[in-house]
Design a protein that fits this description.
Helix content of chain B: 40-55%
CATH superfamily of chain A: Histidine kinase-like ATPase, C-terminal domain
Shape of chain B: globular
Oligomer: heterodimer
Structural class of chain A: alpha+beta
Number of strands of chain B: 7
CATH class of chain A: Alpha Beta
Strand order of the largest sheet of chain B: 1-2-4-6-7
Number of helices of chain B: 5
Largest sheet of chain A: 5 strands, antiparallel
Distance between the termini of chain B: 25 Å
Distance between the termini of chain A: 13 Å
Number of helices of chain A: 3
Strand content of chain A: 25-35%
Number of strands of chain A: 5
Largest sheet of chain B: 5 strands, mixed
Order of helices and strands of chain A: EHHEEHEE
Order of helices and strands of chain B: EEEHEEHEHHEH
Chain lengths: 144, 111
């Protein structure tokens, strides 16, 4: 990736902290040639993943840190999200059944499906006691 | 969230962002409208630029409740970027989604 920059942010495992990450992503987006839809897809994916981590990854009630690293240039972003929760590969979660009717349709379970739909690639690795998730996306138009 | 009466229809204006924070507040407000006996609801999405799965689940809960009450709910004014998330989630088949408020009224008048 040419002309690539790198930024990091650390948050605690609280839903209220996700806003800090959204603001951080907006800051990164400000100087890039990214359209609104690209920025929306990135913010949305990060909200979905962080919400799942904060709500479901920890078996204790203690404080944990979640680490985010963004590698980006004008035509792409690659985000690494690291947490020390229990090992969960989001890519192995069962996909939602989108053909069910209103009554049968469960409320929830859509987050990871949306992330996989709007990002180009999502990859997972368990390293020691850490979950490492990569989210990658290129802009629709190539940078000059 | 602003609620107004248009004839016998409750018109509810959706916020700019429907995320993990605002979803709870929206859910309480919508349940109040539905619990108050509303049979016809139209949701104005023209201000909405962001919805996450936390927001989608609110609308699915509302739709389930409205169907049990034999009521009807129509969504209108969605930006393409928001509509895309409804499409991806299979929600476009579950909900009645139209472009303009007049179409929303037409759907609800016959109910």
């Amino acid at each position: 990736m040419s002309n690539c920059s790198r930024e990091t942010i650390k948050i605690r495992n609280e839903l209220a902290q996700i806003e800090r990450v959204t603001a951080w992503l907006s800051q990164i987006a400000r100087c890039r040639e990214w359209d609104d839809q690209f920025i929306y897809h990135v913010q949305l994916s990060v909200e979905e993943i962080l919400t799942n981590i904060v709500k479901y990854a920890y078996s204790d009630a203690g404080e944990h840190l979640i680490w985010l690293e963004a590698h980006f240039s004008d035509d792409r972003i690659e985000l690494l999200i690291v947490d020390d929760g229990r090992a969960v590969n989001p890519l192995q979660l069962p996909p939602p059944n989108l053909s069910l009717g209103v009554e049968e349709r469960p409320v929830g379970g859509l987050g990871v499906h949306i992330v996989r739909s709007v990002m180009d690639t999502v990859s997972y690795e368990r390293r020691g006691r850490y979950n490492q998730l990569w989210l990658k996306k290129k802009t629709a138009t190539q940078a000059k | 969230m602003q609620v107004t009466m248009v004839g016998d229809i409750r018109k509810v204006v959706m916020p700019n962002r429907i995320d993990v924070y605002s979803a709870k507040e929206l859910e309480l407000a919508m349940f109040k409208v539905i619990g108050g006996g509303a049979q016809k609801i139209m949701c104005d999405f023209s201000n909405t630029e962001y919805i996450s799965s936390a927001g989608l689940r609110v609308f699915l809960s509302c739709l389930k409740q409205m169907q049990r009450n034999k009521g009807a709910m129509v969504l209108y004014g969605m930006k393409d970027t928001v509509r895309e998330i409804f499409d991806i989630s299979g929600f476009s088949q579950l909900f009645t989604i139209v472009r303009e408020i007049d179409q929303a009224k037409d759907v609800l008048v016959g109910k």
